[in-house]
Amino acid sequence: MPRITSTDNPRLKQAVRLIASSRERRKAGLCVLEGAHLIAVYLERHGAPEAVIAIDVYADDPTLRSLLAGIPSSRVLTISAPAWTELTQLPVEVKVLAVVPTPNPTLERVAEFCLLLEDLQDPGNVGSILRTAAAAGVAQVFMSRHCAFAWSPKVLRAGQGGHFHLEIFEDVDLLAWAQSYRGTTVAAVTSGGESLFAADLRGPLAIAIGNEGTGLSDELRGAASRRVTIPMPGNFESLNAAAAVAVCLFECVRQRATRSR
């Protein structure tokens, strides 16, 4: 593993640019994974990253050593802890980061269990939602143009590897998508819909979730096959988007498990 002593190393400079700039990440078609867990999930699903940068003092850490054993040594660079902090502005506890191509799946056919996200802008919420979607067995996530970038460091951090268990499509015209979808599109609304727990959520299905503040657009609500509302007997205003997604998706899981018995 080469140890980098110069900040002029091109792979190191590229990683620094990608960490700092969303525009650079989109332009290059690359993203940065922080920490051994995310890199391990990527390695399992997609193979070796393009470049890995690790802090040299952690070279003998068992978890890190095991991770790096599965990556060609020519792709691994090590730097000192002070250089890491200066260049990446990440805490040393992260220990390792990787540069990988941003997955760009081709839509061959629409899956039976999908999630639509309209204009969700909080990176933490989007990452948590993707993590929940992966856990619930969602196959595809379709995101509108004004959602947070799925492959930003904050979203990846919150997603905890869920990204790599999903097909994620960004900048999607969700209204056109819903109008052409042959399954059931379910709009989650804060009030006025049928109870989530009474709705039939089996069969080919897409759950639509809207912006944290304003919810789904009138157009997307109108294009949905049905509208559902999560009963909230606690007399409190609402759940946040990430919590609402979790409730909706795992009610789908419950119903689908019942059907399969």
Description:
Helix 6 runs parallel beside helix 7 and helix 6 runs parallel beside helix 10. Strand 2, helix 4 and strand 3 form a beta-alpha-beta unit. This protein folds into 2 domains: 92 residues, 60s Ribosomal Protein L30, Chain: A (2-Layer Sandwich), CATH 3.30.1330; 148 residues, SPOUT methyltransferase, trefoil knot domain (Alpha/beta knot), CATH 3.40.1280.10. Helices cover 38% and strands 18% of the residues. The radius of gyration is 21 Å and the shape is elongated. The chain has a 7-stranded parallel β-sheet. The protein has a 4-stranded mixed β-sheet with strand order 1-4-2-3, sandwiched between helices. The mean pLDDT is 92. It has 261 residues and is an alpha/beta fold.
How helical, in percent, are the residues? 25-40%
Uncertain residue segments: none
CATH superfamily of the largest domain: SPOUT methyltransferase, trefoil knot domain
From the spread of the alpha carbons, the general shape counts as elongated
How are the strands ordered across the major sheet?
Answer: 7-6-5-10-8-11-9
Q: What's the end-to-end separation, in Å?
A: 52 Å
Q: What does the radius of gyration come to?
A: 21 Å
For the record, the CATH class of the largest domain is Alpha Beta
- Record field, number of beta strands: 11
Order of helices and strands: HHEHEHEHEEHEHEHEEEHEH
Query: In terms of structural class, how would the helical and strand content be classed?
Result: alpha/beta
Q: Main β-sheet, in a few words? A: 7 strands, parallel
Number of structural domains: 2
CATH topology of the largest domain: Alpha/beta knot
The number of helical segments is 10
**What's the rounded overall pLDDT mean?**
92
- The CATH architecture of the largest domain can be named as 3-Layer(aba) Sandwich
Beta fraction: 15-25%
